Amino acid sequence: MVQVKILSTSDVHGYFTGDDFRRPLQNNGFGLARAATVVEQEKQAATEDLVITIENGDFIQGSPLTDYVEKQASAEGSLYRNLVATVGYEVRILGNHEFNYGRTYLEEVLHDDQTLLNANILDKDTKNPFIGRPYQIFEKGGLKVAVIGVTTQYIPHWEKPENIKGLLFQDPVKIVSNLVADLRFQVDKIVVAYHGGFNRDLKTGQALEPLTQENQGTDLLTIEGVDALVTGHQHRTLAEVVNGKPITQPGYRGDHVGVITLSDQQVAAKTIATATAGENLAIMALAEPLLNRVNQWLDEPVGHVGDNMRITDHFSARLHGHPFTELINRVQMAATGAKISANAIFNDEMRGFDNTVTIRDVMTNYIYRNTLAVVALTGAELVLALEQNANYFDWQDGQPMVSLDYLYPKPAHFNEDIWSGVAYKLDVKKPRGQRISAVMVGGQAIQPEAKYEVVVNNYRAGGAGNSIFNRNQVVREGQTDVAQLIVDYLRQHPKIRIDQPTNIHVVN
Q1: Are 310 and 366 contacting, i.e. CB atoms less than 8 angstroms apart?
Q2: By Cβ atoms counted within 10 A, which residue in 214, 347, 355, 500 is the most buried?
Q3: pLDDT above 90 coverage of the chain, percent
Q4: Helix crossing, 482-492 with 323-336: angle to 10°?
Q5: Where are the alpha helices (DSSP H) in 299-322?
Q6: Is 48 strand, coil or helix?
Q7: For the segment 47-56, what is each residue's pLDDT rounded down to a tens digit?
Q8: Rounded to an integer, what distance in angstroms lies between the CA atom of residue 293 and that of residue 285?
Q9: C-alpha span between 222 and 106 (Å, rounded)
């Protein structure tokens, strides 16, 4: 009897080979080329099955290669389609980061892609999917399976308005419910591919994060008629059967492949790590000519910053500040005229800079396609924003540590800002909401009712990661992405020296 096998990757983010673009090269056992090998092996082992292979979003954004294509080699956009065809994906889903390049770019790169499924992101005028189609039906041996494609509706909370102009982001739960009602009598099985994750624990139902509409996987599982769910977005590695329904979430950068088996007799879910798989030669042949050009571009030097901008202790840098974060804040303030700035050490892979800085160093440290926004905060709001940042820390066994809230369900170091232009005391031993004191701006005590301009990235300005911020506070915005601003600043200031910041006084 024919059974269904669903193979998936998600959040490849432009890492098509094992090159992580840092130097010396770190081949950490990931990349689409390895995932393609695993996919092919699984297909060969399931010749009697109906096999459906899904790329679950965030495919064309996230690496120096994808930025290079968008900025300097737009004609190379066909690479993405060729890679999809070579792996043999039958289904593609839009990820939230795909919108970092804007609607027009998406329509250019994906406009007639027959594998693209998009049921819930609509054109405001036509009320139809602005690109792609809502679902596709696959059939083998009399077995019919519908795959519905949806994307997190939370994108407007992060994305620049001009990048999503004319789009409606509908609730995927409502959209899927309506489609299931139409499809359930036409097909034998219904699979949902969702670029989003889970905001609740799959076993206990306990909330894992604020219950926004960002990660509605648990709600999608409750829809009667949904037989399996492929997820992504959170970069987690998940494979479980929940109330009889298999789910997967296959990691990040092609480091895992999700496998769901679905039949009337059994359901099963697993993920397969790709680290030990060989790299698919066809994928390598497609990617390497462009990779060579990208690496030449990345090696261009842009300035010198001294010998103290290498990040060796990420926790200490977040707690006390660091010359590297001070540099980024100076870039942000110079670009906008704001006197206060905040930025984050996005993850523990960030190394900071050696003395000689190249474009590669900038792109592998500032990995997001952010622009800048200046927000007007009252003094009271600014203190509350600092208090939210202080929640990153907990006190345990006589020392500060990272709060589990920022480690689970996924690491969220990118939500911990390090500030410049404001001085304060931080006492991690105190209860949350009472850890910040002696706040000074320009040498004067902060005034609760006064307004202060603060520059942050557009992600933070929308309230992501710190609810004190919101779009209504924005007074002006920049259009140039931050990585380019850093490059420009270093070229304008080719020899920089920044000492260890002293504006954060950590109370022992």
Answers
A1: no
A2: 214
A3: 94
A4: 90
A5: 314-320
A6: coil
A7: 899 999 999 9
A8: 14
A9: 31
DSSP, residue by residue, 457-484: EHHHHTTTT-TT--GGGEEEE--S-HHH
CB-based burial label for 431 (10 Å; 0-12, 13-18, 19+):
exposed
**What region, left, alpha or beta, does residue 308 occupy, with left being phi > 0 and alpha being psi -120 to 50 degrees?**
alpha
In DSSP notation, 396-456 reads ETTEEEE-GGGTSSS--GGG-EEEES-EEEE-TTSPTTS-EEEEEETTEEPPTTSEEEEEE
Nearest to 151 by CA among 191, 236, 93: 93
Neighbours of 448 (CB within 10 A): 12
pLDDT grade, residue 112 (50/70/90)?
A: confident
Q: What is the CA radius of gyration of the chain?
A: 23
Q: Residue 276 CB: number of other CB atoms within 10 A?
A: 10
- Residues 358, 364, 369, 373: is their CA dihedral positive or negative? negative
pLDDT tens-digit readout, 442-478: 999 999 999 999 999 999 999 999 999 999 999 999 9
Three-state SS at 156 = helix
Residues with Cβ within 8 Å of 391's Cβ and at least 6 positions away in sequence, in order, are 403, 405, 432
341: number of CA atoms within 13 Å, CB side?
Answer: 21
Exposure letters 340-360 (e unless 16+ CB within 10 A, then b): bbbbbbbeebbbbbeeebbbb
DSSP code at position 124: T
Segment 287-291 shows an average pLDDT of 95
Domains of the chain: 4-294 (3.60.21.10), 301-506 (3.90.780.10)
Say yes or no to pLDDT of 106 above 90: yes
* Nearest partner of 474 among 378, 338, 375, 341, judged by Cα: 375
Query: What mean pLDDT comes out for the span 126-145?
Result: 97
**Which DSSP state fits 326?**
H
Query: Among candidates 111, 177, 185, which has minimal Cα distance to 144?
Result: 185
Closest to 17 measured CA to CA, from 238, 198, 281: 281
Q: Is 264 exposed, middle or buried (0-12, 13-18, 19+ CB in 10 A)?
A: exposed
pLDDT of residue 84: 97
CA-to-CA separations, 108 to 116, 129, 244, 461, in angstroms, rounded: 13, 15, 40, 28
Residues ≥6 apart with Cβ < 8 Å to 139: 50, 145
Confidence of residue 23 (pLDDT cuts 50, 70, 90): confident
Cis amide prior to 129 (ω within 30 degrees): no
Bridge partners for 9 per DSSP: 55
